[in-house]
Amino acid sequence: MEMTLQLVIDCADPQRLVSFWAEALGYVPEPPPGGHSTWREYWADMGVPEEELPAGAGETPESIIDPVGQGPRVWFQQVPEPKVTKNRVHLDLKVGGGRDAPLAVRAQRVTAMVERLTKAGATVLRIMDEADMEHYAVVLQDPEGNEFCVV
Questions:
Q1: How far is Cα 72 from Cα 19, in angstroms, rounded to an integer?
Q2: Which of the residues 10, 15, 52, 66 could staple to 71 if both were Cys, CB 3.0 to 4.6 A apart?
Q3: pLDDT for 72-95, tens place per residue?
């Protein structure tokens, strides 16, 4: 049996996170399947009752996909409760080049990505600059407070 992986992120505003994470990951909003004009129309054709869909759900894409088809689909599921504690799972955006790249080069690459993501709505939480360990990373939050790292 074949298995695929989908990452689901609970959130209050799927469209805001679609925009942010598409930029962060180089993904694109996932178009509705089979000639449907919206995901809501698709879900209605599948028989999902209207009362199960929050207002506005599916009018614009709530998921993103890797345009080259290698990474997992990411679905931003609207939930009523806010995020209240630290993530137990987080993403690492590995842009530095790993230990084969000099620390200064890794730091420059990480810093460039962090600047791009803060312009898109991320907030820097802390910089992990441990020269004695040859490590440089930045911990950020997306626009809804989900933590992730740029390494």
A1: 17
A2: 66
A3: 999 999 888 888 888 888 999 999
